[in-house]
Design goal:
Layout (H helix, E strand, L loop, with lengths): L1 H12 L10 E6 L6 E5 L3 E21 L9 E19 L6 E9 L4 E11 L7
Parallel strand pairs: 2-6
Antiparallel strand pairs: 1-3, 3-4, 3-5, 5-6
Keywords: Signal
Length: 129
């Protein structure tokens, strides 16, 4: 009897049975400065790196700043799989006006998490802003 109780306790306390809380970590290249990621003038690329707990799908949306702008969003990445590390490469051109939120949605088996980053242009000092 004691052996069965001990076995059940070990089974219930086994760290392999413990589910970690879902998490999301977002990094960008170029790296953010404070609350914003600044992109240089001209055409270029921003890399968004998402680290999460065993997600099934990751979506990245570009959403204009301001209130009630979700309807104007543009999907820039939509990846499916079963992994922890995701990369989204977003290319922009030299004439593109960029002052946006990038919303990252992560979907797991029975959970989802949403987070966002702020992205804008870094203009030269003589640029008329």
């Amino acid at each position: 009897m004691l052996g069965k109780v001990l076995f059940i306790c070990i089974l219930l306390l086994n760290p392999m049975n413990v589910q970690a809380s879902p998490f999301i970590k977002i990094e960008t290249i170029p790296a953010p400065e404070g609350n914003w990621t600044y992109l240089p003038e001209g055409k270029g690329e921003m890399i968004i790196i998402v680290t999460t707990s065993r997600a099934k799908r990751v979506k990245v949306w570009r959403v204009p700043t301001g209130t009630q702008q979700w309807e104007f969003r543009k999907l820039i990445c939509d990846e499916s799989g079963d992994k922890e590390n995701w990369t989204c490469d977003w290319k922009y051109d030299e004439n593109e006006v960029i002052h946006d939120h990038f919303v990252v949605e992560v979907f797991g088996k029975d959970w989802d998490i949403t987070d966002s980053i702020n992205v804008t242009r870094r203009h030269s000092e003589d640029h008329p802003q």
